[in-house]
Amino acid sequence: MSTEAATQWILIFGPLAISPGPANVLFGALGNSFGVRDSIPFWLGTNITCIFQSLAIGLGLGYVISTYPAATVVIKFSGIVFLLYLAYRFFRLSVTEEKSIKPLSFKEGVVVELLNAKYLMIPTIMFTQFFSPENDGLSQVFVLTLALAVLTMSSNMAWVFGGKVLTKISVESKSQKGHGMVFGLMLGVTALWLLIG
Question: Which DSSP category does 19 fall into?
Fold first, then answer.
């Protein structure tokens, strides 16, 4: 990839990766509620799934999605329902005194990412804009997927650390409960925004 193409890639996908989408809001909430270490299983689940999704799109899944648009609708609405469930979990964290609420797991990270229709658009855009069939196609798919994985993993971890920093700033129990409520509401609003949009 040329320097000009790499610059364009960063200018397009950098803002998309760091923007507050469903997964990034969850990463901030996890970092805030459970810390960095307990957020890693969820982080791994989402990011490993992202890698497989990107490879699948690069190797032809984009064609299937464009041929059967109903599949995207099913993924979108399933994702909205799952986001509402996660919003409920964070809201419950804000009103309960129990310490029995556990961080999101690797498996939940996989589910979130499989149902994240917004993410599927990112590698689709990437491959339509930066894939050159006249060059070695397979190596391009792997290089673009690796670049996107590094970008999403680092931006997701930035959200986890941001949530953790928010915890350090306000260590009172009432503040922590307020954060759980805010993140729960943010996830609920995100789900409604996806439903309306």
Answer: S
Would you say residue 176 has pLDDT above 60?
Answer: no
Domain ranges of the chain: 38-196
- Give percent helix, percent strand, percent coil of the chain, each to the nearest 5: 85, 0, 15
Range with top average pLDDT, 27-36, 59-68, 87-96: 27-36
The pTM is what? 0.72
48's CB contacts (< 8 A; 6+ apart) are 110
- Rounded to whole angstroms, what are the CA distances from 7 to 34, 116, 147, 175? 36, 26, 13, 41
Q: What's the one-letter identity of residue 122? A: I
Separation between Cα atoms, residue 40 and residue 190, nearest integer Å: 23
Q: How far apart (Å, rounded) are the C-alpha atoms in residues 63 and 185?
A: 35
Tokens of 79: 């994702």
Would you say 23 and 119 are in contact if contact means Cβ atoms under 8 Å apart? yes
